[in-house]
Specification:
This protein is mainly β and about 550 residues long. It is built from five helices and 34 strands. This is OmpA/MotB domain protein.
Amino acid sequence: MRPSRTRPAKHLTTLVVASALGLAACTGGSTDPDATPTPTVDPGPQPEDVVATAVIPEAGMDLEVRVHPLVRAGEHVVLTVDVVPPEAPEDLVHLRGFGVTSFIASSWPPVNVRLMDLARDVVLHVGADSDGEPVVAPEDWSRFRTERGTRLQMPFAAPADDVDALSLFFPGAPLFAQVPIIDGELPSAVHPDDVAAAEAAAATAAARASASPSATPDVEETAPPEELDLDAVVEAPVFPLESTTAELDGAVQTIESTEKVEVTLGSDVLFAFDSADLTPESADAVALVAQRLAEREAGSVEVVGHTDDQADDTYNLDLSRRRAQAVADALEAQVAGSGHRMRVAGRGESEPVVPNDSEENRALNRRVTVSLTSKVVTRTDVTTTGELPPFGGVVGTAGTPVRVESGSRVWEADATARRVHGHVVVDLTVHGADEEDGNHTAIGFMRGFGTHRLGDTIAPHENTARATVLQGATRLFPLDYRVGENEAYPDGEWFTASDLHAGHWVDGGQTRTYSFVYPRLDVDTLAFQIGTGIAFDTDVRLLDVPVAPGDEVATPGPRD
């Protein structure tokens, strides 16, 4: 790991805040029983308080993660987390899995630690210096050898003043739904116990030197503790989250953020061969698009037709225009009075999303896209009708862990779900159900190497983006966001709202949690799936995953 920028000083998530998070209390200001109590205001959590904990497996040990409040510091908020072993380790411990195998964006740890504002659908990355490296403290945060463990402190862009909490994604732990944001002094970037131990050692050495005037031992001066160098932060990235759903057996795919929606309709569902007349079967698909448009402020709706390469350019261009016009006419009839304006275009075969080298790919290229850039004013859930598609992997029911044999390892997987600001969050636990110890093997069936997005896109290697939620014939993909693009991948690299590195060392007897954030969905149970169940017999489908009632965090309505 490259050096971090610092400077010298000048099994479910468990909430552990006690009275500091309670209501304001009344304490007596007098011993007189008839005296009027003097009201006092609860100060709330303090910077060194621990507001949440979880346990993660790392380097063959179960480590406790202790989360402190986020503290505002000018244009930043600062996260402080302690990682503590159950006892002093025998060897130096290296924390792994905090980076990402990225093709475009910064890969340096701890970029896999992220803050999320799921009310406003944005994700925050750690602040970086002029070289693009994360600004963190202390410099050796990823290594420790004492029972005190290590402390990690890192800055992020400060949210608006009215935001009082954010969600925290920390590798190996369930998503921390609500970490409070406070004003106050930053905690020490080095754990107070480490500072005290260093000072005590220096004092002992000085006392010994004073007690032996004839000796002249070298007494090293205690270096001041490191401090997070906020002045080194050049950029603190904030990315808009996007959601992707595939409805009606994949015939309608919707990608949306708070600012834009794009719906892709498969032409084979809308039209007969060589025709621009909508079929009766197209009605449900067109109605879904109209519903998505109705959720947003009035704007200019782009309707664009595309074909495969099976006819000549001129013919395909004309066909694509006529098909786009047919869809636009049908939509206009359903959203009349909304203020939306339809703009129609045909691109023929000029913009394929995949190579036209198979019938399956040509079907993907035959499509009509409908896009609108405007803000959400209301929300409706995706459709949940239809049947689950066939699946050839391991199938089980949530509540009874399914057994997955992968290579030399045996795993047990189970899942639960909850809502955070309306979003469905699935917490998958994977347990090492064998006696393997110290062989440094990861959970193979979790590792992914691609993205659900078509075109010239890429995703980090060994991500966990293979996991989807199924509800009837509808598939929901984890929320994702575009971190950059280059000449090789002009459509961008996409990170998911899930673990960005699945290659973690997990021993037999240990359990690791993976959290996945999905679009908003109002259901009591769902099906959760890892992989397609086609290529690998270690793919997993869990049925009847319970969604906890209510919402862990109250969800505000649409914002201006």
